[in-house]
Write a structure and sequence with these properties.
3 domains; 432 residues; Four Helix Bundle (Hemerythrin (Met), subunit A); 13 strands
Length: 432
């Protein structure tokens, strides 16, 4: 193999196309010599686009690397050719690829990330030895910029002085996450939040315990801490004391058997309530992903355990609905309006927080009752019965007769051409 200095850029591209049969030029490449106990030369290419069946063959070891000797293809099966005790060769190749990606120009890396982001995230999950290197290559949407994605190093640089965790939230789209109750106070206080919008993102972050000594905090789960100072802490503790009758009532009566506990929230500003998963439970996004998996078992004990875990019900002490609910509970713990309000708050919080409702029919009925009240309709007002329409027998007979006459006319018209054809055939026969 020639030295890199002796090979032109066009020759690299031509060689790539000849061995891959790809019509497009490669996105980038690296040509190097590895020296040590074993010396070898290699050229590694990154295709411009990911093949359509890339993840169908994911995990297979064949066709990952092709061995050529004097431009003659030898093999692409390295299962037996590269034994485990020579794994350092593979490690050398992996590190060269990661170094190559690290040195790519920003505009080229943007193209690479668009095609291969899922591969790098899977690498974080599957390759602990290179996890830190891969983490530096990750990109995510962020509240800091509405268009460009950010890397984790950039996020850490912008963190507030007393912020000790990297905040993130996962969902189906940026629009959904920006409207989530879990980010309300964080955004208001100027904290940056990472928006994880790909299905693999939450798995990827969970595989990383920390980045540059900063732990990751899912803001949709317990454990969120916002440092507002001593005075704010004292005010919050006083608020907890004030709303203790309501939080106790919600846990013991209003939402009994539905929640683990009820607490005053530190993360809500405009929403009345939210449903928060435990530190080791499923977020609403993870619950959706697990339930949508085609290969999931109908009665998987692990899935049922996580899906049925009770969650923490957080209330916004400054919301008018919550303040009125506190008054009603303090006045009468058996107030039926308080009970129905708590039920509806729980169901709307379940949906706002990204979880699925167990009793969807009951929820729809309660919303219908609210619509009745807003329109000043009685709860006893019934749906009007559909009248039974009886056809007039004489009209039905006339219609049948008309239909029969039309059918007869059509049949006569269809027979006329056939009769004319028969006459012509007879005339020709007579002439003969």
């Amino acid at each position: 193999m020639r030295k890199p200095s002796e090979v032109t850029e066009d020759e690299y591209k031509e060689f790539y196309k000849s061995i891959t049969k790809d019509f497009e030029e490669p996105l980038t490449h690296v040509h190097f010599t590895a020296e040590g106990e074993v010396t070898f030369k290699a050229i590694l290419y990154v295709p411009k686009s990911l093949s359509s069946d890339a993840f169908q063959n994911y995990g297979k070891t064949d066709e990952n690397i092709k061995l050529y000797v004097r431009r003659v293809f030898i093999t692409d099966d390295f299962q037996d050719m590269l034994p485990k005790y020579l794994s350092f060769i593979r490690e050398k190749l992996v590190r060269k690829v990661l170094d190559m990606l690290k040195k790519m120009a920003p505009e080229d890396y943007d193209k690479f990330w668009k095609e291969y982001s899922t591969n790098l995230k899977l690498g974080v999950m599957e390759d602990p030895s290179n996890r830190n290197r891969l983490a530096k290559l990750l990109r995510f949407h962020s509240s800091n910029d509405s268009e460009k994605q950010t890397n984790l190093a950039g996020y850490v640089e912008r963190m507030k002085e007393k912020q000790d965790a990297i905040f993130y939230i996962a969902g189906t789209s940026r629009t959904e996450l920006e409207a989530s109750p879990f980010v309300e106070r964080l955004l208001k206080k100027g904290y940056e939040v990472l928006y994880l919008t790909e299905p693999v993102d939450e798995y990827c972050i969970q595989a990383m315990p920390e980045f540059e000594s900063k732990k990751f905090q899912n803001v949709a789960k317990e454990g969120l801490k916002i440092d507002d100072g001593e005075k704010s802490k004292e005010a919050f503790e006083a608020m907890e004391k004030t709303f203790e009758p309501l939080t106790n009532w919600l846990k013991d009566a209003g939402l009994k058997d539905k929640i683990e506990k009820a607490v005053v929230s530190q993360r809500l500003t405009s929403s009345p309530s939210a449903l928060v998963a435990s530190s080791y439970g499923w977020s609403g996004n993870m619950e959706r992903i697990m339930k949508s998996q085609a290969y999931a078992k109908a009665r998987d004990p692990t899935q049922e355990f996580y899906a049925n875990q009770k969650k923490t019900f957080e209330i916004n002490p400054r919301h008018p609905v919550i303040k009125e609910l506190l008054k009603r509970v303090e006045a009468d713990k058996e107030d039926p309006i308080a009970a129905s309000t708590a039920q509806l708050l729980f169901e709307t919080a379940t949906l706002r927080s990204g979880f699925s409702l167990q009793d969807q029919v009951g929820f729809a009925s309660r919303i219908e009752n609210i619509l009745r009240k807003s329109l000043d309709l009685s709860e006893e007002a019934q749906v009007e019965e559909e009248p039974e329409i009886i056809e007039d027998p004489e009209t039905a007979v006339d219609e049948n007769q008309d239909t029969g006459e039309e059918q007869t006319t059509l049949e006569e018209q269809s027979e006329q051409p056939q009769e004319e054809e028969n006459v012509e055939v007879e005339e020709q026969h007579n002439e003969l």
